[in-house]
Design the sequence.
């Protein structure tokens, strides 16, 4: 699915002049995909070959950079970055060819975008009467996990339906939603959709081969990062094809399960905890 391009308008008004400014973002579904400091981050990764160094150069924390990179890779049709571990030069992060291509594309669009804003500002008349028509409402999603996929199965009932998405990693994500929502979203087999899951709704299991549970979604992956704090921490799983799953669990659970980076574990998600969205 190709991303849409959105320009978020802002104005600086005085008695004699209205100045126009805007930020440019690529969006996929309801989620900001590429733009602003995320593009800066990708460019710095290409220059530095290190996520931590790139984050500092782009003026953001390592955690913000890590989370932003996971969102970009989850929403991209192909991974934008690849992590390198070990070797004589140590670990690092570099852009894929797809990553370099999309950064170049964004900068081309940005140049045209700035030219459009300049022409718009020149043609403005009495802008104050029309400003409300150009303002737009935007929604920011707090869910850590956003996956793009294709609807491969819909099982309908009178009040609720089961929707199965095929993710690019090869895994499937099952959601139970109201049948009214299926109709309102226009869901059908073969259409593109998004699955959103809060990190707090993701459970982690390490003895998953013998585990008997009712949860529909059991996705295996390798732990790439564990962030601990006084009470709760985050566990990030690489599930393939550049996709990751983030789980928020207690520090005591991390210790009791003996979780370590490099372990293969299973992310367990109830189908009722999955939100489906479309573009």
Sequence:
């Amino acid at each position: 699915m190709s991303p849409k391009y959105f320009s978020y308008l802002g104005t600086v008004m005085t008695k004699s002049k209205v100045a126009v400014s805007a930020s440019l973002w690529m969006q996929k579904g309801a989620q900001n995909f590429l733009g602003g400091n995320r593009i800066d981050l990708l460019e710095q990764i290409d220059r530095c070959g290190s996520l931590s160094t790139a984050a500092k150069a782009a003026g953001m924390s390592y955690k913000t950079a890590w989370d932003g990179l996971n969102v970009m890779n989850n929403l991209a049709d192909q991974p934008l970055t690849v992590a390198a571990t070990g070797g004589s030069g140590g670990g690092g992060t570099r852009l894929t060819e797809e990553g370099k291509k999309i950064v170049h594309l964004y900068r081309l669009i940005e140049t045209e975008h700035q030219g459009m804003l300049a022409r718009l500002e020149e043609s403005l008349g009495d802008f104050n009467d029309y400003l409300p028509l150009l303002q737009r409402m935007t929604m920011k999603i707090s869910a850590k996990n956003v996956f793009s996929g294709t609807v491969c199965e819909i099982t309908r009932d009178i009040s609720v339906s089961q929707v199965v998405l095929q993710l690019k990693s090869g895994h499937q994500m099952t959601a139970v939603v109201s049948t009214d929502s299926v109709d309102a979203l226009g869901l059908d087999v073969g259409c593109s959709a998004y699955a959103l899951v809060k990190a707090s709704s993701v459970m982690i299991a390490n003895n998953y081969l013998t585990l008997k549970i009712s949860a529909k979604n059991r996705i295996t992956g390798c732990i790439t990062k564990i962030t601990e704090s006084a009470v709760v921490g985050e566990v990030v799983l690489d599930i393939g094809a550049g996709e990751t799953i983030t789980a928020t669990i207690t520090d005591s659970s991390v210790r009791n399960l003996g979780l370590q980076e490099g372990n293969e574990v299973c992310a367990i998600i109830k189908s009722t905890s999955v939100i489906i969205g479309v573009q």
